[in-house]
Amino acid sequence: MTPRIIVSYDDTDNDRDALALGRLLAVSGAELSLAYVRHQLGDGRDREALEQKQAEDLLAHGAQAIGAPDTPRHVIVHASTGQGLIDLAAREHADVVVFGSEYRTAPGAVVPGTSAQRMLRGGSTAVAIAPADLRSHPSVRVARVGILSDGDDAAGDTAQTLAGALGAQIGDSEAGVDLLVIGDGTPDGRLELSAAAEYAIEMASCPVLAVPRSAPVLFAEPALSGA
Length: 227
What we know:
Elements: E1 4-8, H1 13-25, E2 31-38, H2 45-65, E3 73-77, H3 81-92, E4 96-99, H4 114-120, E5 126-129, E6 144-148, H5 153-166, E7 169-170, E8 179-182, H6 195-203, E9 208-210
Parallel strand pairs: 1-2, 1-4, 2-3, 4-5, 6-7, 6-8, 8-9
Antiparallel strand pairs: 5-9
Helix pairs in contact: 3-4
């Protein structure tokens, strides 16, 4: 079964980076959808209808931007963007939630925002973070996928199947790779990154995908050993 990927999208530049990464990850045929979290209901029926329409239009613009106007879209009402996305991911059985980097992040750097950090600290869904300004490189190609893991197979299986789907190779180290899969320090079924993993994200200049232990994201059928 192909992965289900949700992109957190609010039509800002940083979330356009997330959209670019979501499109890249979906090249394997993964199910891609967009989500926007509203923080309160509008006062009165007319105001509520207007805010709902604005949110729907915002997501429709994102779907148009990737040339897939029929992309499924979710408008969520929740006081917390992070918790709203956690609830949505659970309800939709999502495998990955994709974020852009924090506002005003320097181009090429990866800085998880508040909502991404919330999911990285105890969430049960894999989290992908786009480097700032990825949107300016629509033809970016992943030739090497790196792995940072404490030995758990989930990160390795994720990286191997993603590399297969993208026509990429597995890199020998974290340096010089085009996408980094992290599985270091996470407890079973949850994300809780080690200090080394957090530092790797801080130093990254490529997209990062953090995977909970024992919960690989399979972008293609894993290769059989000896095949």
